[in-house]
Every structure is written in structure tokens, then in C-alpha cells.
Records
---
Amino acid sequence: MRTIRAALKITLATGLVLCLGAPPPSAAEDVYKKMANDFAKYSATNKVKNVTVIGFLRKARTSREESEYFSEKLLSCLVASGKVNLLERAQLDKVLEERRLSASGVAQESGEGGGQKIDTSNAIIVGTIFGTRDQLKIIAKMIDPLTGAVLHTVEAQTERQWEMMPEHPGFDFEVPDLRAIAAMFREDEIKPQLTDFRDAPASLNTDSCNARKTRLASMQSKALEAKAKYWALRMRDPAFNMKKLTRNPGGELNSMERKKFYALLRVFHRASEPPELSAAEMNAVIAVMKEEGRISDECGLH
């Protein structure tokens, strides 16, 4: 019992650091806290003392990383509330077995000097996360694990965790329609050069793939901000459909550049005004995407 209490104290301290730390809470942080407080209030009212958070199901383009992150954040905020005991999943089987024995009348109350019994008033929290273009919609349920009865539900939504989106081995992307690109610019004199790439020579096909990838990395680094603006503009377009993408934006970049790209994309996408993309920046994005396509076809990007 002392070991369990010590573990709970450590978990509580960790939860307090995560949920009550120095930085001011973001809108996403508020979502975790509100859901945790809702469950904690129900638990206190209905004398649910022990709770275990089980991994959430993923639907509609939600990544595994986003689902796991949400589960851990909800768990830490529940601990920080101080109103329930959080059991690790490893302890859940032991608790459930005691509940089964108690329900069947097999379990006996511990006599004086006997072993300490785990409190069997408990529930599990499960749920489903649905991903939209910009949001994660969460439906969480508190369930009696012995009977399967749904005790309480909480619904919420929060922003997507773009930096957690997974990598995939292949790469395919949509080359932008040059006429649509030109329409982004209001003045004719600043429209990008609409180069016909069909007649362009292959990008140094006689060179090694490693050399071509090195040059591409330099191009990607220089066009990183422009590329983030381009994708932010596309994602702000009501007609943009993320289902048509076969890879997450930025998936073609190396890990360091990808982190920078997602940080810029988040800033541009959430800004009150759409980012301004100059003709030179648009031409740089087009050139990079064309080169990425050639190297992907001939060498593979990763």
C-alpha cells in the first residue's frame, strides 16, 4: 500500500507540473483541464475513487500520436485535480479481480493484521477522437468496467497537434495549378512567372541521387517560409479538402526543417489575416515542388 501511495504522490507531482506550470494555459490546455474537472466532479459526487484512463480510439484522420498525447494530458490533469486516484493500467486487472470476487461473495474483509485491500470503487475512461481539418473532436466516456454501463460522458474539441503528425515512407503530392496560383495575386505586374515545366530539362539526371538530394535540401531550406505561407493559404481556403492529400504537408522535409515548417505553418494559419505570398516566393515554392517530384520518382525522397 505504501508503494501505491508513493507512486500516486509522484504521479500527482508530475501532473501538477504539466497542468499547473508557469506558462499561461493555452486554449488546448483549458480543454484538458475542463474535461478533467468534469470527470473529477462526477467522481466526487458519485464516490468513484479509482480511475484508469485507457487509450482513445482514432477516427477520421486522427494520428496515433495525437490520440496518445490526449490520453496522457487528460490523465495528468485528472491527477492534478486531486479529486480521484489514478491507477496505472497494470493495476487495473488486480482491481477488477477484487471487484469480481467481492460481487460473488468470495472476497472476505481483511482482519486485523491482514493484507491491505485495494479500494474497489473504480471506473475507466475511454472514448473516441475524430479529426477534422483543424480540430480534434473528443467524446470521452466513464464506464463501469465490470458491467460495461456508461456512467458519464464529456464532449470537447481542441486544436490539432500538427507537429505530431506521423511520417510515412512514400511521398506523393499535388503540383499546384499555375492558373490558380496566379489568381492569388491581385496585381498583374506581380504575378509569378508561369513557366511551362514540360519543356524543362531533367534536373541533372547524370548526377548521383545523394548530390541531388543535397541540392534539394538547400532549396527546401531557402523556400521554407514561402512553403509554409503557400500551405497556410491553401488550408484557409474553404474549398480545400484534406482528404485529397496523400501525405501531410511538410512530410517531404527532414526532421529539423519539418519542425520549423510546422511552427511557421501554425503561425500563418492562425493569423487574423492571410499571409502575403510574393511572386518570388511562389516561384520558389513551385521550383522546389517540381524538383521534389522528380527526385521522388527517380531516387525516392527518404
---
Amino acid sequence: MTSHVKHRREKTGTVDYDVQIKEVRCQLIDQLKVLDLQLELKTQQLQDLTDYLRRRGEIENEYARSLEKLAERFSSKTKKKEPTTKTVSQMWGALLTHTRQESREHGELGESCINVLTQPLTHCLEYTQRFAKKSKDICTQLQDGLLKVTTELQTAWRTYHQYYSDYVCAEGKLREAEKQEEKQKQSASKKLERLIEKRQIKVQEIHLKCSKARNDYLLNMAAANSSVMKYFLKDISFLIDCADVGYHPSLGRVVQAYLSKGKNTHQELRSSLLQLQEIVSNLDQSRDKDILLQDHYNAFSMPARFTYQPQEGDQVSEISVEHEMRCELETRFKQIQTRLKAVTEETDEVKFIKQSAHVTLVGGISDDDLDQAEKSQEDNTENLTAKTSTAKRRANLQEIENLYFTKVKDYLVGSLLICKLQAKHDLLKMAVEKAIRRIFCRMAGQTIRIRKTLSSPNVMPNYKPFSSDMLSFIKAKTKSFYAYFAYFKVITELLVLIINVLSSGLHHEGIFRVPGSQMEVNNLKEAFERGEDPLAERRYNMDTVAGVLKLYFRGMKNPLFPTDTTYQLLELAQIQNDAERAAQFKMVISSYPEPIIIVMRYLFAFLHHVSQYSDENMMQPYNLAVCFGPNLVRGPHEDDFVTLQPQINFLVKNLIIQQESIFPSQSEVPGPMYEKCMTLDQDDWYSRCFFAPDLETGSCSDNSTGMFLSPGNPKGRPRTNSSGSTDGSRTAGGGSSLAGKLTLQIPAAPQYKPRRAQSPTIRKE
């Protein structure tokens, strides 16, 4: 049986991987050949251009000497004759003077072509060959690393198939022993029982080894695919850029200098020179690189991805997180995460040094100043000084060149390591999170009740919602799933409490524009920061409650919209097409952390609802933008406030008008949603928002250890009338969406029972 499995393994997967890796190896060899061919082409181009300039200089000098002889010949004839004031004679003298001037200009052009313009080309040829050699060496190292990854993939694949074959064999022996046991039940042979027990233990051990081997195989496959993708999409392109550093600028500068000389000498050839200048101005390193890659598509195209090839009969195609391996995988995940962070920081530092060295290197290569070289020829005293400074500059340039290519190699090696670690990190993260979700659903059942008051001071002792950085505080404090729920709950619940009251005053004229009582605003702020719900105890003026909401966003240490995206959002706001503008806004906002997106989505849905009653409350979208713009969006610098304020108001106005198209839906970012309907009691609101999937069935998918949730009875919050005070007899006009199905689920520990006590904590029964 074992030999049959091995035969099947060799027949199915090995050939595929060998052929695929052989094709990749051929591609890598072709790439090196193309790089060598490209170096030969650039070398030939530089040599041809140098020969052309030298020969052109000789022709110009010969032409200048001929013009000088021509002018001297007719000048000598003119000197023999008596001078005359006739206009024809004056014209003739001017013509001879012009001929001498033209001779001098052609002579200068010839000397420039021979002595000045050819020197930068010689230097360019030298460093182009050095750059190409160093780039090829780095490319060879990267290819070796890539082939090493594919070799590791093959090794992991063979190990996995070997263990799986052993597992199938051991399982067959176990079944055979079980059949013998059934035949010999009456004899009750203890020897047979020991044999079965021994084979069961062996099957379990081999199964564990097989699972570990499969995990290594999957991880190596992910790393190999990620490495190949990065090499073909980024690294090879980057190395071609490195090999071409300074090549295009040097050629451009030489030809540009030639054009400048030619313009002064040949005005009659202006149209041709302009055409040549246009060609020079269109020198584009990126375009040449794209053409090179397109011309050699087979060598540089992305190879096919490595696909998972399981042994016949194995249905598992993902990372296994079983009881025996869960701790090991979690430890491995943390180690990869730590290593990934360290390597990323190191690579970022190397990248910064590389970019600085690149700028310095290009600047040094471009310092072959043709004008200074021309002046040094005229002044012999300054010529020695210029040669000394040039030699020193070249020595410094050599050091920068070595530093640059060292950092290029370090950056590419580091980024490749990041790519492999990130692939393993993402795969392990998905497996661990999936296992954690299964564990949450299997834990003991409990009924959860969230109180009407805000989170307990014992849970959130240092959080001041009106003066803290919401996102930084959540990241710093959420060390467990329970903590995340508690901290996120207090932020969203505070907003819901305030907005639920304000949503019942949509008809109130001047809402958010008319300031409320500053004393009452401060009292409400202090009550909220103590963890209380002051809006449930007494009635407040609508303008006062609106002032609390504005104060909440104004007091944030960092604005709701990150300052590093402010200029990007302001630029996108200038797009004329509404659909395109909304799509661009959504792309930027979707990159924000989910807690920020949820708060934005809830707030702007409410503001849009307010603007729909503008005929009564006089608050059009622009008026609301004027009230909320300075509180939500700020520039990177404080001095930008006055200059950016009109643009910020225009931005917030567009966000309010197009909020449905801009902010991600609940299916994209699960969380509370503002809807134009009666609101729920806060207990029921959180139960429905965070446990909606279980409310439909009454428990988790695991019936034996399911978590039962009590939805509670909905109860409307008080609503204010148009005069600005609350009235408990009227229902609210806005609320939270019940359709939200977040993946957040609180795992149960001991058994809890719901109670209507006024304590802000969850009490144990």
C-alpha cells in the first residue's frame, strides 16, 4: 500500500512542480541574457554617439578652416584696393566679417564636440557598465533566493506526501486490526486489544506529523508564490532602473548641450534642431523600460502561481489549527509578527538611505557641467583647479555609488523577506482567527445584558471621551476581545445617546448653528465622562445637546479625519463628476480603521437626515458643513485653518450630500447604522448590533455549548419638540440599524442572567 501511494505521488505532483520550476529557471536565465544584451546595446549606443561627436567635430573644424581661408582670400584682395564708402562695398565687408564670425562659431562647435561633449559620454559608459554589473550580481542573488524558495517548496511537498502516505498505511493497518477484533469478539483476546491500541496511537502520531507537514507545505507554497510575484512585479523592474541610473540624464544633457551649440551656429537649421530637441525632451527612462519588458515578454512575464496539490483523498486545503498544534501555531504567529515588524522597520530605514543615496548619485552624475568645462578651456589657471575638484568629486561619487548598490541589495533582500513573512503571517492570522471564532461559539452559554448607563469607571478608568484620541486609546487598551467590546461600546453608545435626542428635534430651527448654554454643555460633558447618561434623567435644551455633540468632536486630540489625508480629500473634492468624486472619497475613507469608519458613517447619515428638514430647521448641507467642518477636518499645521476653511466646508458639504455612496455599507464594514426609525433601548440596541446572527437562531452554531442572547424589549427614547425641549410622549426620529450583523461575539465564561438593575456592570448570578 505504501509503495502504491508513493507511486501515485510521483506520478501526480512531482512532474508538475519540476516542469513549472524548470520554466521559472529558464525565465531567470533569459532575464540575465536580456540584461547582458541591454548592456551591450547601451555600450554600443554610447560608443557610436562618441564617435559621431568626434567625427562631427573634425568636420566642423575643417569647415571652419575653409571659411577662414575664404575670408582671408577676399580680405587680402579688398586691402589692395582703396577703401570706398559705397553701400555695396560696405555690404561686402559685412559679409566677410560675418564669414569670419561663422568660422569662429564652427571652430568652437568642433572643439566642443571633440573635447567637451565626449567626456561625459566616456564617464557615462564607465558607470553604466559598473551599474549593470552590480545590478546583475544583485539579480543573481535574488534569483538564487527565489530558486531556494522553490526548492523548499518541493522539499515541504515531498515531506507532506511522505507523512500522508504513512498515515494512510497506518490507518489501513488499524482498520485491519479492528476487523480482526470483530471476528474474535467471543475470544476476547487481550493481545489483539493491545495491538489495536498500539496502532491507534501510531495513527494519531502519524496524523499529527502529516498535519504539520501539510502546514509547512502550505506556508512554503504561500511564501514561494509571494516571492515569485514580488520578484517579477517589483524587483526585476527595480533592478532595471538601477542599471539605468544616470544613463538617460547623461545622454540628455550631452545632446542638449550639442543642441545649444548648434542653435548658435546654424540658425538656418532651426526646424531640424527643434525636432531633435523635442526628441531629446522626450527621453523617458520608464518608457524605455516598459518597451524593454514588452519586447521580451516571455522572459519577464509573471509565471503561473503554485497551486496546492494534495495527496489523493486528502480534503484539507488550509492551515490546520487542532488542539495539539494551536499553541504552536499561535506562538509561531507571534514570532512571525514580531519578526515582520522588526524587518519592516529595518527595511524602511534602508529604503530611506537608498532614496537619499539615489538622489545624491543622480545629482553627482549630472554634475558634468559642460559650461564649466568650456570655461576651463579658456582659462589655463582655473583648469588645474577644475581637474582637482573633478577628481575629488568622482572619488566621492564612487563611494556614494557603492553605498547605493549596497542599500539596493539590502532593501530588495529585506523586502523579499517581508513579502515571505507577510504571506505566512496572513495565512496564520486567518487560521488563528477562524479557530478563535470557533472557540467563542463553543464556550459555555450566557445571557448578556448591557446597562443603560455608560461603561463602568472600573472598566474605563482613564478614558475622557471629550479630550482623548479615540483610535489611539482603543489600540492602547484593547488587550482582549472583552476590552475591545467595552471600549468600542462606550464611544458608539455616547454618540447614539446624543444623536437619538437630536434626531427627535429635526424641526428645530437653527440646530447646531444656535449655541446652547455653555454651563449646561459643560455639565453634560462632565456627566458623560463620569459614565452617566444625563439625558435620561432630565430635559435639556436642544441647542445645548447639539453643542455637546460638536464639543465631542472638537475636543478630540486628533480629528476624526486623519490629518495625513486632509490634502488628498480636499483635492478630490474638486472633482466635477459626482459619481467619480464619491468613488474616490470611498477609496480613501475605506483605508481608515473600522472604528473611525463606523463613527463617520453614523454621524454623516444623521447630518444628511437633518439636512432633509432644511425648509424647517434652516440647516442646508453647507450650513451643517460650516458648523462641523472645523471640528472634523483639520490641516497638518495649525496655521492652515484660515486658508483651508472654505475648502474644508466644501468637502464636508459633499460628504453630507453623498454619504450613502461614500461610506462603506454594513456588509463591507459591520457596525451600528443610523436609520430613520424608532430607536431601541440601549441594552437591546447593543444586543441587536453585536449579536444579530445569533438572535435569528437563538444560539451559536454549536448547540451543545451555544451562547443564548436576550434581545430585550424595544423602548423608544424621549424626543424633543420643535421648541427645543424633550418630550417623552413622542417617539424619536432616528435610530440604529437592526440589520447590522457584526462578527464581534462575546465569549461566555460563567453563567449570567439578565437583570434590570441600575448597576453599570454585568452582575453574576
---
Amino acid sequence: MTSSKEIVLPVKREKRITVLISGSGTNLQALLDASNSSILPGRITHVISSRSNAYGLIRASSQNPPIPTTVIALKTFLSRNPGSTREDYDVEVARLVLTNKPDLVVLAGWMHILSDSFLDILNGVREAPSAPTSSSPKPESSNTQTEPIPSVFDGETDTTFSFNQETEIGTLPLSSLGEDIIDSLSIRATIAMASKREKEEIENYHEEIHFPIPIINLHPALPGAFDGANAIGRAYEAFQKGEINKTGVMVHRVVREVDRGEPLVVREIEMRLGESQEELEKRIHEVEHEIIVEGAKKVLEGLT
């Protein structure tokens, strides 16, 4: 039973998102903006890039607080780990993804096709290695590598928090609760620490990874059309030949077959006579920025 000096706060656990990129990160920026404005019911806790010069890394590290980033380039990985294979690379990428225990993985311009090994690990079918491959990169953010990422918890469990300005598991700053919660609960001057059992339950919950971890991808084509690389270029060429009069963009779940997973959000885009491929690409990218947020939101809201 809760004493007069304690308060029980049912707070929903915030969802964690890991984003994989290879380039400028404009779609990453759309996700960041949506997360920062609370449009997206989750926050990005890790950005992994296959290229060290990807501008998306700067976008992540410029956030307040900076988002941890990791660079793992395929050529560099293979050269530093003689005898390793492309599958080994994907296994290491999967291990890095799991380090932040994400609820959702978003491919936002990730330029590698993920192997079955990666998918098996994120589906919980195969266990990821517990230790990094030799010469494996470490996250490059200077912020949250030595400090735990702050967490909030599942609304199904009543949890007692301590009033403490430090950011640690089991502790929630009073200022972060919002005036409406504070007023409605009539918080007393002293809020007691959670019991040892409650603390252990909270910590154990966040030690768990909940499989399967959904993976979504953004592809600039309609379902079943122009799978794989250079989809915009191939669609443009088909339009010039009079074979099609529209293309599109979709967010889909990632499965073993390339770009064949369940479509989550689809937008059709009419082709225009006299339009250059660059102009078409610009219109497509504008739509991408919208639907990548819609797709991520749809998946997050469907998680229990």
C-alpha cells in the first residue's frame, strides 16, 4: 500500500527508434522534426550510417541532446576483418541496432539490401553476438554513451518514482511530468523512492528486447513496380516510352523479398509531360518526407 509520502504515476513507456541512413538524411530530418513536435509517438535514440560522410550524422549530432551515431561502412568492415563476409557485416549491423533496444527500425536511405541474417536477428529467430566483431565501430555521440538514456515506463504498471533531477532508470524529473499531471494527482512535497521490487521490475523491463522488432523502409515506387535500385530513373524512362502515366512512393515492412513487404502507406504521383527526372525526383522526395512519418507513426501506434 502506498504511504502518504508516495505517489503512483501510470506513465506510458516512450518508444525508441533506430534509423539507418547512408546519405544526406532529409528523411531522417523529417522524423526528427516529427519526434521533436510530438507528432511521432517515440524518439530517435540511435542513428547508424553506412557512410562516414553522410550529412545525416550531423543532423543527429546537432540535436539537443545529441543523438548517438555509429558509422559502419561495408568496405572498411571487410578490410579490417580479413575473411569476413557480407553476412558478417549484416550480423554486426544487427548487433549495433540492438544496443539501444529499439521498438522500431527505420531504413531512411540505407543503401544496402539487408540479408536474411539481419532479419532473423531482429525477428528473434537468431541470436546476435554478445560481443562486437574485432575493429567494430563504437557509437560516436559524446552525449549518451556514458549516461543512460532516460526512460519512461509502461502504462500497465503503476510505478513510484523518486523526485530527483538526475536522469537514471527509475527516476523521473518532476518538471517533465507536465502541470496537468501534477495538478490532477496533487503531488505532495516529498515523493518517496520506489520499492526495491518495483525498481527491479522497471530495470528488468528495459533490459528486455521485444521481438520481433518491426523494420520499415521507404521506397520511391508503387507496390510491385520498380523494386530495387534506381526506381525513380526506371519509372521516368518507362513514362518517356509511354508505358506508365504515374509512379509513387510507399513505406513498407521489410521482408526477405526486396521491396515486397506489406505496404503501410502508399502515395500515387502523376507523371508530367516535359518534366525532367530531377523535377520528378524533387516532387517524390517531398512526398517521402510526409509518408515516412506516417508509416513510422502507424507502426508505433500499433505496438503494445
---
Amino acid sequence: MQDLSFISNMSDEDAYLFKRCVRRLLDTTFLVKDKEEKLYQFVASESNRYDMNQYLAVIGYKVVVEEQMGVAMLQPNDDDKETVGLKRLNLYHFDQRHMKLLLVLWLLFLERMGYEEAVYVTVGEIIDKCRLYDIELTPVEFKKAYATFRRFCLIDYSDDITKEDGAVRLYPSLQFCLDIGQLKQVMAEFVEQGDFEAADMADLEEAESEESDE
């Protein structure tokens, strides 16, 4: 059993931040530095992250921080990844259309990614990219998908997303919301249809290479 006595030794402020971070991660999976800097910085502290992982290990989770991208994320604990009945409980099951839209957002993020500047696209640019791959969603389906993605700190927006000039911010957490297996599955459909571009496949292969190196 994990020793959780460290919790009683925390200052009131640290205990408060600890609880907020844990609850936020359990609810949204991601903490993004550009969105919630105070919570992210708390988790990014090595000592705080160690304590948090001691706590989360009890329920089969761990926190991983990607400092270069400014993203903290909840993942299954290594010891529990293959435990029957536990290994998929933390996953949100996107439907196929949402997965394809996520892929489009991921590709748009990669096209514009820089480590110093925020990444924005317009609703019109998203729609154009979807048309390129024959992804058809109704305005209601787009709106529902955007709301879901915002809940999980993948995107944010304040403009009217029903208009083509509405701005959508793409967070670096998009790079971690689908595993490589899921990406390959979706991309394979595009390849079969002849809709996929060589440059986009290169992006996937690069992402897969980086994941295998970790």
C-alpha cells in the first residue's frame, strides 16, 4: 500500500493545488500550461509530481509531463496497463467522425506548430481541411465535437464557431489525445480512399518514431 502521509504535511495552499490538479486531470486528462499555468507549474514540479504519482498509483494512474510542449497528462500506470477491466477505463471513446476531425486538427496543428507562439486556425480552415479528406459533418455535429474537444483541453475558442472566420486555438495536447494505433487506423481509411497526402503520412511516421524513442 502506498504511503500517503505526505498529504497531511502539505501547506494549505499546496494541499489545495494538489486536490485541484488531481480532480482536473481526472476530469479532463490534460493540463495545458497556456490555459492553466498555475496548475501546470504545480504538476511540473518534480517533487509535486512524485507525490501526485504516489497518490494516483492507488487507482492505477500516473502523471506525465511533456515540458517542451507544456502539457501534463494522465496516463494508465505502467503496472496496470494490461490489467483486465482497468486498462481502458480512462479512455473517452470518440466516434469515427470525431476521430477524423481530431486528425484534421492534429494535422493543422503540426502545420503551424511553433514552441513560442500559440496556434490558431479559423473554422473555415478546418472545414476546408475536412473537405480535402471527404469528412462531412453537419454544423450541429461540428459544434458538439468542438465542445467535447474543449472539455478535454484540446482546443479553445471564444468567437462564434458557427461562422467561418471564427478563431479556434489548437493546444499541443492534440498530439497526445490519440495513440499511434488509432491514428494509423483512421489514416488507413484515407489511404484506401486515395485522399491522404504524402506529407501527412510523413507527419505520422515522425510522430511514431518519436514515441518509440521515449
